Amino acid sequence: MTWDPLTIDELRLALQYIPADDRDTWVNIGNAIKTEYGEDGWPIWDEWSQGGERYNLADAKTVWRSLSPGHVPLGFVNKLATAHGWQRERREMSAGDRRRLKAEAEERRRKAAEAVEADQAKLERMREVVAEACQRVLEQHLKDTSDLPCPSPYLERKGVGAYGVLFPKRAVLVNVDSKRERVDLWAGEEVRRFYADLPKPRPDHLHFFQLRPSDVVVPLRASGGKLCSLQTINHLGTKLFPKFGRKMGCFHLIDTVGEPLPPVVAVAEGYATAASVHEATGWPVAVALDLGNMARVAPLMRSMFPQSQLVLCGDDDPETNGNPGRTKAQALAEKLGCVAAFPSMEAA
Q1: Would residue 103 count as lying in a domain?
Q2: pLDDT tens figures, 184-223
Q3: Separation between Cα atoms, residue 135 and residue 253, nearest integer Å
Q4: How far apart are CA 108 and CA 126, in angstroms?
Q5: Which of 70, 91, 112 is the last residue in one of the domains?
Q6: To which H or E segment does residue 254 belong?
Q7: How many domains, in total, are found in the chain?
Q8: Closest alpha carbon to 44 in 11, 17, 1
Q9: Which residues, 6+ apart, have CB-to-CB distance to 241 below 8 Å?
Q10: What is the DSSP-derived secondary structure letter of residue 39?
Q11: 0.85 cut: is pTM over it?
């Protein structure tokens, strides 16, 4: 079905018929508006979002920045508003009016596409400077467990050892400046002085990633071995990453020393689960960080260990509605033609 492009006034009217409380709908409409209008669509989406019961300006700004245009067309809004009872006012349009509206819509899409291209180029640059900063952190501010009788409260609570993970020698702050496209490191007492001199409110283009001496630091590498990012796990199990740090397709490998052709290679979501599987079996285990990334890391492990059977170690949580960890891991295993296993331990 084809339809004439919506005017701004028509879009605002159509949005009034759509509740802003369902988060998936909220995000999809934001994506549709950003696809059509680029950054000019923010006031329209934010105005509509304020009708939701859980509206929060800071959350809306964060989600808007994270939206990648191109996934949802503006026709999604038209279709959903119509389903909720909106009827577009019938009006006669001349061929000239239709051509003008179509040309305006095409121009908006062109500008939005240019903005997407520019954002992607900037993202790649930021990923590179963050990767370089993570390498500096690893070389200058991290250590292994050789002189630590108890390397981490988190590892002690989980009852697993340290396999390739590292620990901060001192407090470290990674300051990611998306405006200047650079990353600065502050360590020890410099961290306190940095916060003392920080303008208030904090500028939106500054993003902080802090490492504390009690944290576990998991290096995240691409398949070629390049360090791309870091994950920190604090004593409570909270896991954090630096802004713009690449995660997709990256992993931490707990390898098997002295066994170049292991019979089995496994992939798990979190570090503690992976370490537990490794200690119980001796298999090499890749830490994929989450189930979505497991779908990207599993084929990489199959390529790195072509003689080995691939096992996906999923999280089994029957108390969660639908048990998505188990269901999705089983579906992924079926798609990849491998085995899904569910360790009987506390999930990492």
Answers
A1: no
A2: 999 999 999 999 999 988 898 999 999 999 999 999 999 9
A3: 17
A4: 27
A5: 91
A6: strand 252-254
A7: 2
A8: 11
A9: 209, 229, 230, 231, 232, 247
A10: G
A11: no
Q: Are strands 309-313 and 339-341 parallel, antiparallel or unpaired?
A: parallel
Please list the alpha-helical segments (H only) found in 159-309.
189-197, 271-281, 291-304
**Nearest to residue 76, comparing CAs of 18, 16, 12, 29?**
29
Residue 1 lies inside a defined structural domain of this protein: no
- Residue owning tokens 């993570």: 134
- The C-alpha atoms of residue 298 and residue 253 are separated, in whole angstroms, by 12
Q: Structural domain of residue 324, as residue ranges? A: 251-348
List Cβ<8 Å contacts ≥24 apart for 252-255: 252/164, 252/165, 252/218, 252/219, 252/220, 252/221, 252/286, 252/287, 253/164, 253/221, 253/284, 253/285, 253/286, 253/287, 254/163, 254/164, 254/278, 254/284, 254/285, 254/286, 254/287, 255/164, 255/284
- β-sheet bridge partners, residue 217: 166, 232
Residue 212 forms part of a structural domain: no
Domain endpoint, select from 91, 121, 149: 91
Q: Residues near 117 by Cβ (< 8 Å), separated by ≥ 6? A: none
- Angstrom CA distances, 166 to 114, 150, 154, 212, 282, stand at 41, 13, 13, 12, 21
**How many C-beta atoms lie closer than 10 Å to residue 331's C-beta?**
12
Cis (ω within 30 of 0) for the bond into 69?
Answer: no
Distance CA 343, CA 34 (A): 42
Interacting residues of 326 by C-beta distance below 8 A, sequence separation 6+: 314, 315, 316, 317, 318, 342
What is the rounded distance in angstroms from the CA atom of residue 175 to the CA atom of residue 313? 35
CB 169 within 8 A of CB 214: no
How many angstroms separate the CA atoms of 91 and 263, rounded?
70
pLDDT tens digit sequence for 20-71: 999 999 999 999 998 888 888 899 999 999 999 999 999 999 899 888 777 7
